[in-house]
Amino acid sequence: MATHHSSASPSPGARHRRAAALSIDHISFSYANGHEVFKAFSLQVKPGEFVSLLGPSGCGKTTLLNLLSGFQQPTSGVISINDEAVRPEMPELGYVFQSPQLFPWLSALENVRFGLRMQKQLDARQQIEKARHYLALVGLDKAADKLPYQLSGGMQQRVSLARALALEPALLLMDEPFAALDAITRNNLNEETLRLWSALGQTVLFITHDIDEAIFMSDRVVVLGIAPQGIHSELAIDIPRPRANIETRKLPAFLDHRTTLMGTISEVIHADGNVDAGAENTYSGNIQHV
Ligand SMILES: Nc1ncnc2c1ncn2[C@@H]1O[C@H](COP(=O)(O)OP(=O)(O)OP(=O)(O)O)[C@@H](O)[C@H]1O
User: Fold this and answer.
1) Which atom of ligand 1 is the closest one to the Cα of 59?
2) Of the residues 36, 52, 61, 99, which should be mutated to test ligand 1's pocket, given the most ligand atoms within 8 Å of the CB?
3) Which molecular function terms from Gene Ontology are attached (predicted)?
4) Most buried among 11, 212, 246, 254, by the most CB within 10 A?
5) Which residue's C-alpha comes closest to atom 7 of ligand 1?
6) What pLDDT score does 6 carry?
7) Domains plus CATH for the chain?
8) What ipTM did this prediction achieve?
9) 42 contact partners, CB below 8 Å, separation of at least 6
């Protein structure tokens, strides 16, 4: 992976959208079969804050994303972005998923441009200019014409990040975005994502199974318990920014946070009698999601 550092200047014709405040206020949600996932669950994320959600399988991360995106409705309580109730396809929201979900027949550039075309706010020249700008920000200016299969997994995930950023979301939801990548690529993308976040300033809600990743990225790590417990505990990450892989990951504060979170996760897992013995490995720092 290249160690490029393109400047994150505002994009051509960017409509500045301020970072969003996210408010999840006492939501409850059960599936049709009666399975209760959230009971009076609340979480506030401040504009520009980087918050990670760490939690065992089944704690409701996917359900929460579906509720945040407005595709499912809580049975009670309200989720709002900048005081506006969430609804499907809200322009304030951007997504990056574990699988890059690129259109295989479109070039990297056209994949980034796709959402801009759907928005219908820019003419073709402006769309291409903006797509190029965000591809350059993720270091892929030279790969603009490549098809997804010609790109490595890490490069594909960069395209997916550029595609989300090009829409200039005020709140970026990242669902285990780097879990499928090798540790070196993941660490590099962690650093790159922070560089872009500090330049662009959006609010980020980041879901991960990786304790080290959660600490490295976040202002705050929120640990979820087994559904419907909701938030088990929170940890403020008081490590200075900018953060860099080599320096930050060896700081005493980083290692302290890791020890704390490993203890917390162990507590969460052992509080649930049904969790299999291998579950704890999922959370060891930098061990791949199993
Ligand atoms: N359609 C459904 N009907 C009933 N129960 C469901 C449904 N979808 C999910 N669940 C249950 O709701 C709980 C939360 O599921 P969810 O998929 O949100 O968890 P998760 O934290 O995303 O897990 P994972 O990390 O394994 O993806 C789980 O116990 C799951 O079995």
Assistant:
1) 21
2) 61
3) ATP binding
4) 212
5) 31
6) 41
7) 22-92+169-280 (3.40.50.300), 102-168 (no CATH)
8) 0.96
9) 24, 25, 26, 27, 77, 230, 231
Residue 228's alpha-carbon distances to 31, 81, 101, 153, in angstroms, are 12, 23, 30, 34
Q: Is 177 in the pocket of ligand 1 (CB under 6 A)?
A: no
Strand order across the 36-45 sheet: 36-45, 22-30, 76-81, 84-85
Rounded Cα distance between 58 and 55, Å, is 8
Residue 36: CB within 6 Å of ligand 1? no
- Give the model confidence (pLDDT) of 93-149 as tens digits: 999 998 999 999 999 999 999 999 998 889 999 999 999 999 999 999 999 999 999
Q: Is 73 exposed, middle or buried (0-12, 13-18, 19+ CB in 10 A)?
A: middle
Whose C-alpha lies nearest to ligand 1, atom 29?
Answer: 58
pLDDT of residue 282: 57
Query: Does residue 45 register a pLDDT over 90?
Result: yes
Is 229 close to ligand 1, i.e. is its CB under 6 Å away? no
Q: What pLDDT digit, counting tens, does each position of 57-86 carry?
A: 888 988 998 999 988 999 999 999 999 999
Distance of alpha carbon 110 from alpha carbon 122, whole angstroms: 14
122: DSSP letter: S
- Residue 217 in 3-state DSSP? helix
Query: Model confidence over 144-187: pLDDT tens digits?
Result: 999 999 999 999 999 999 999 999 999 999 999 999 999 999 99
